[in-house]
Specification:
Elements lengths: L1 H7 L4 H5 L5 H23 L2 E12 L5 E11 L4 E11 L5 H14 L7 E6 L3 H4 L5 H12 L6 E4 L1 H8 L6 H16 L1 H13 L17 H11 L1 H10 L12 H24 L6 H23 L19 H18 L1 H4 L2 H8 L11 H11 L2 H9 L2 H7 L6 H11 L6 H13 L9 H12 L6 H14 L1
Parallel strand pairs: 1-4, 4-5
Antiparallel strand pairs: 1-2, 2-3
Length: 477
Amino acid sequence: MIEAAGILCPESQGKFEKIGLSRRTVTRRVELIEEDIASQINKKAESFKLYSLALDESNDVKDTAQLLIFIRGINDNFEITEEFLAMESLKGTTRGEDLYNHVSAAIERRKLPWSKLANVTTDGSPNLTGRHVGLLKRIQDKVKEENPDQDVIFLHCIIHQESLCKSILQLDHVMKPVVKLVNFIRAKGLHHRQFIAFLEETNADHHDLLYHSHVRWLSLGKVFQRVWDLQDEISEFLELVGKSTEFPELSDKNWLCDFAFAVDIFSYLNELNVKLQGKDQFVHDMYKHVQAFKSKLTLFSRQIANNSFVHFSTLATQKDATRNAKKYSQSIDDLHGEFSRRFSDFDNIETSLQLVSCPLSQDPEKAPQEVQLELIDLQSDSLLKEKFNSLKLNDFYAALNEAMFPNLRKTAQKMLTLFGSTYVCEQTFSVMNINKSSHRSRLTDQHLGAILRIATTKLTPDFDALAKKGDQQHCSH
């Protein structure tokens, strides 16, 4: 590595030669960087007016249950900090009591006041959400002990709920043959190579099939589209290898019609999921996408019931679409109902979300009493209207006079600090699986946590101070 660095930067070769790359040196430097980032987080947390937590649990390669905790805090200037708080390793059971003890330890280790906890977002697993003995019930009781007026908002990850909604469509009879078909072609190297060669020979638009994993169910939508686009080539290939009788669905008109419907509806679900992904998203923006999707479902259902397939281009190619229109319209109605049922926790805060995201269009009489007069003052101030249209939302609320708009600011702080999903946790699990793999299974929990903090942070370590500290430690050995 040093020789390569010398070739690329010959003028700095001497500096590279002085860099220690031993296992202990690298470990010590990772520890120092992690400590510096954690110290910065602690310092920022001191100024938090409110904070929220995102929690998710998964097993690592050694089957140790790892609970990831992310924090999102907001200070008086509406500066938002979203960082990795802790990784808690659960060596024994993972009951609600066990999870609470670990979350409590992480909070108290950082000296975070329970009274400022505004929200906890989870993936909705029973040990996290149990009403009587689950983690959330224990957290609510603890917060009430310190601040009886503080109600913690508990949310079920908006992305996870969206993924659960698909089951109501009852498209297993479409999914299973498609997955079986893809696995037949992709599972065996010979079949896969033959299929790729066949696609090249036939000048197909695509050069391979996508592989579907049940863990990443949304890949199914892309798989559906790819299989649909290549259905003629797939049928010819199956005949070529003498396996066409194993997939009779490809010549079944009714099944192909259902398949066409699945291709279209899953493409819309994929589109929604992409909008919901990402860090630093405000809950009102995420919920806005869900509400828009529900409105689209209403439109789709009404149009299909009237034999209009303008937004279902794949389904429109099928002659049997009109005959099955009532069935598809009902499926979309069922999906709409499932979205309404599953997102009830977001419905409960919809009024507050709208108040914060669109204060200029809210009716003061329908707003909570404590903000009615402030809302009138805000809507009557032309200068504030201009600021609202020109500034980012958190910057706008930071610009509001605290003496004149105390309740609006307080409501905004609570809504802007909410976690809408556990996306940051899911993304970090991917980092965890890369770093603690079957080839690096001896990585300790402490060092794994340090790696995850460094990999996910937006903060910049003080490298100059760390370099001096490292040199001092090196000299003392």
